[in-house]
Amino acid sequence: MPAHDTTRLGEPCWVDLMSTDPASAQAFYTALFGWTATTSGPEYGNYVTFWNGDAQVAGLAGAMPGAEAQRSAWTTYLSTADADVTTAAALEAGGQELAPPMTVGEQGRMAILADPSGAVFGIWQSAAHTGFGRFGEAGTPVWIELSTRDWNAAVPFYENVFGLKLTPLSNTDEFRYSTFGPSDGFTGGIYDSDTYLPPGVPSHWLLYLGVADVADAARRVSELGGAVQREPWDTEFGTFAQVNDPTGATFLLSSIREV
Questions:
Q1: Which of 222, 237, 143, 215 has the alpha carbon at shortest distance from 181?
Q2: Residue 5 confidence (pLDDT) above 80
Q3: Which fold has domain 141-255?
Q4: Element (H, E) at 184
Q5: Among 100-104, 132-136, 195-199, which stretch is predicted with the lowest mean pLDDT?
Q6: Which of 5, 14, 23, 169 maximizes the CB count within 10 A of its CB?
Q7: What pLDDT does residue 165 have?
């Protein structure tokens, strides 16, 4: 399997899970995807890196103790050349700073932000840690999507702050969606979901993880203590299922085309 190319600035470069039960989450994902896991030392908060073979594909950390309304959730990180400059630009464009820029040892520099529609995401200025080692294959992230309640606020924010280049897939009131990434292999999209999201569900970034058989993987999710929120459905883009891990973190299973 080929290694993932260097991530383009402004696009997703990493995902990690903030979990209320890291031990259960680690057992679930390693069993479901065949990942192996390595744990950093205490200087990095015992951060867990998931590997698909020799390629790093995702991370895992424990939720902050004592935080109110803490829940397990995946965070998407967008690549930046300068975390401080990007944070300042995000604030000027109507975003929020949830965690200020900080240096993570020799790995890189990060911050946690929210866009004007309320979707939380991270930014990553890489050093030793350069992001995904594989993408678009079974057992790796294959798609990353912003589901936004305010299209008119979110789209110009990402275009102006990150220089994200969007390609419209559909632009009607019934279905408004744009993709991003290289023309020969889009990596994610932005979805106008205000009329589709249940009441109380905020704008958010969604992670799609690739599997060879979505129906079989969905059954395994239930066997491993997770829950299937939406049974597998077929589209022109592949087969998908929306699931939760045992601690409640949501992600989607996505079919992949084996080459």
A1: 143
A2: no
A3: 2,3-Dihydroxybiphenyl 1,2-Dioxygenase; domain 1 (3.10.180)
A4: none
A5: 195-199
A6: 14
A7: 92
Q: Strands, DSSP E only, in the chain?
A: 12-19, 36-39, 48-52, 55-62, 73-79, 96-104, 108-114, 120-126, 141-148, 166-171, 176-180, 188-192, 204-211, 227-235, 238-244, 250-255
Residue 104, pLDDT > 50, answer: yes
Single-letter amino acid code for the residue at 131: G
What value does the mean pLDDT of the chain take? 93
Residue found under tokens 């969604």? 206
* Mean pLDDT confidence for 205-228: 98
Residue type, 199: P
Higher pLDDT, 173 or 193: 193
DSSP states of 64-115 as a string?
PTT-TT---EEEEEEE-S-HHHHHHHHHHTT-EEEEEEEEETTTEEEEEEE-
C-alpha separations of 220 from 30, 68, 235 in Å = 12, 31, 22
The CATH number assigned to the domain with range 12-126 reads 3.10.180.10
- Which two tokens mark 82? 């300068």
